[in-house]
From TrEMBL:
GO terms for biological process: regulation of DNA-templated transcription. Keywords: DNA-binding, Transcription, Transcription regulation. Pfam families: GerE. The keyword DNA-binding applies. SMART domains: HTH_LUXR. This is Helix-turn-helix transcriptional regulator. GO terms for molecular function: DNA binding. SUPFAM superfamilies: C-terminal effector domain of the bipartite response regulators. Residues 170-235 form the HTH luxR-type domain. CDD domains: LuxR_C_like (cd06170).
Amino acid sequence: MPNEELADLAQQLRMTGRELDLPLVATCADISSARPTLDAQGIPVASRFDFTDVGAGYWNEGDLALRNAIVAMIRHLGEPFYYRDGTVGGWRPIRVTDKLAQQAQRANYAVRSAIVVPVRLPCSVLGAVVWATDRPGGDVATRFAQHALMLHGLATRFVAACDNIAHGTPEIGPCTLTRREVQCLKLVAAGKTDGEIATILGLASPTVRFHMKKASAKLEETGRLRTAQRAIELGYVSSRL
């Protein structure tokens, strides 16, 4: 049962945090949503975990993800990172502006150090799990180096389980775009009009529209922008143009 899996994973999150001396846990399965992530009984998943007194009930703050510095870092990173009194580090160098670092120190919910794991799922879903402590001291950088890979896998399973409860198991079928369809989608993602795409590819505008219509049908989307977005989500097109 999905809820039983979620309960087991939540227990693993708690136990792992205690073992690493990071006993406070914060979770979110979709930071784009102003509503808290719920389990199968309609209870906020985040309420399963202890967090700081200052941050109690954070999951009810609908605008938290819009103003929190750690969430801002989560949006830009695809790998785990650690935080300690304003210092941020990870598997590779992380550049954070002074303004964001200061913001993280001012509004830190009494968190002194933490390991943060962003989780990216299909359909542009972005979630995260945070293991933290409100006590000073401790070598979080060493714990990160030793355990971040394991935490990454655990966080991914947990967020995916939450997503499964909310949206069910996706049905995966074949979807084969042609080279020309992908070329058109890349140019749509770059902001080009049908006329501009036709000029660039040496095609007639109706031919461009034909390829886009075929791509939309294959991706089960309507409209050129939603089709391009779906192509980006599935890895046919990169948003780095």
